[in-house]
Amino acid sequence: MPVESAAQARSRTLKITVIGLGHVGIMAAAGFASVGHDVLGVDIEPSRILSLQRGELFLYEPGLQPMVQAGVRKGNLRFAHLDDAAAVLGDVAIIAAGTPPVSGGNADLRQIRSALDWIKSKQPRGLVLVMKSTVPPGTGRRIIKDDLRGADVSYVAVPEFIREGSAVADWSFPERVVVGADPNDLRSLDLVKQAHAGIAAPFIVTDVTSAEMIKYASNAFLATRISFINEIAALCDSLGASVDDVGEALAMDSRTGDRIFAGVGYGGSCFPKDVRALNHIALTSGVGVELLRSVINVNNRQRLLPLYALRRRFNGAVSRLRVAVLGLAFKPNTDDVREAPSLDLIDALVNEGAEVWAYDPQASGAARERLPESVRLAADPVEAAKQAQAAVLLTEWDEIVTADWESIAEGMRPPKFVFDGRNALNKSRMLGLGFEYLGVGRGGGAEWSIERESGASLNVEKYKEED
Ligand SMILES: NC(=O)c1ccc[n+]([C@@H]2O[C@H](COP(=O)([O-])OP(=O)(O)OC[C@H]3O[C@@H](n4cnc5c(N)ncnc54)[C@H](O)[C@@H]3O)[C@@H](O)[C@H]2O)c1
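Above are the sequence and the nicotinamide-adenine-dinucleotide SMILES. Below is the predicted complex in structure-token form.
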């Protein structure tokens, strides 16, 4: 597999059209404009276009808004609705539309198909089409064979590896750029390299299906690490070991990768759907894959831990509780609540009659549309926890970890039970402040790890065990 450096590519200003302006598309549009290309971003959502034309970002991503504004000011970053006359194809078109999950785990490719239809309606001539969306291995081959048959378009897969919350740094200094292309299509390879000129990263060239698989393998491996440490945490709880010490020691061994933390598991718009999709692909292609369904099932179980912990601590009487949920986003530094553990936990608590107050520094707006009406949103952690008997930390935002926990302790009602779903708080300090504290694999004792197996559930279809 050839590895080269895109930084050395011949630099030329390209006309780039980015189709789909979610997290990935807007980052790509602003990023390619920042290295000098002439970029047009198009989307089907009029409100997104209107706010971007004003240089306003409709999502929270540190450092991205100034990048968008710089491009808009300079004039080499423009936005148009898909139906506008201004929405035209450049030398390169990048598809960054969504590939959400459908029931059964497969990826829904309708947004991709409609983007392809739009491209074809523009009667492209010599277009290089870059697929940045995550599509199941084999999709590109089918698109080339069926959707693009007869069209003057070359297809290249360039999967995206940015992480929400650190997208700007990940985009500017990627660890690698993976390019899946026909090895004989030197013009497309050259154009893709030119697009990335100035970005110092190894450029890995492979075939289209392998590039698609690299993206799924990468997410599945990262999810596996998380489920692995969560299984170890369950054993730690049962056997009286500390998962913090285990995780720290593991991270010192270069063979095991960097530090992983036990907690309520992974969420977000990528890991859950991509692992389910890969498992689905394995099942439907008759390959006996064992590991992925376990990764999924462990993650589903982890989400139940706060509910088990509350039921256990309050003898099942969750209905009389006031609970503070600290953190709604699926991880810190984003306002994305897609597949966030918070939404499922809050639904379950409200169903069981608890009174829920929630706090998140950025995601309250996005979460509001998805939360039951009775849930109250607080301005800070102290307000959220006031008069609550229990608090559950689900997102390790600095604003939550370094909150004024003394005031939180003063405002809460006994037993001041804190479930730390991210092992982000200092246990001895919390005990010193008068909290009852429970983390994940931090010495919870065997009794609630047994509860874990006792069949309680969030009653959500997607958490049924994978076969
Ligand atoms: N979010 C991430 O951090 C991330 C990271 C790596 C890869 N990915 C992958 O990248 C893809 C996009 O992810 P996202 O989170 O940005 O998705 P998203 O759902 O946030 O955004 C998709 C955008 O595409 C627009 N769209 C839908 N159909 C369209 C069409 N026919 N023409 C033009 N625009 C259209 C939508 O209106 C929306 O603005 C997915 O496949 C995802 O798995 C996401």
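The pocket of nicotinamide-adenine-dinucleotide is lined by residues 19-25, 42-45, 48, 82, 96-99, 111, 114-115, 118, 133-134, 160, 162, 164, 269-270 (CB under 6 Å).
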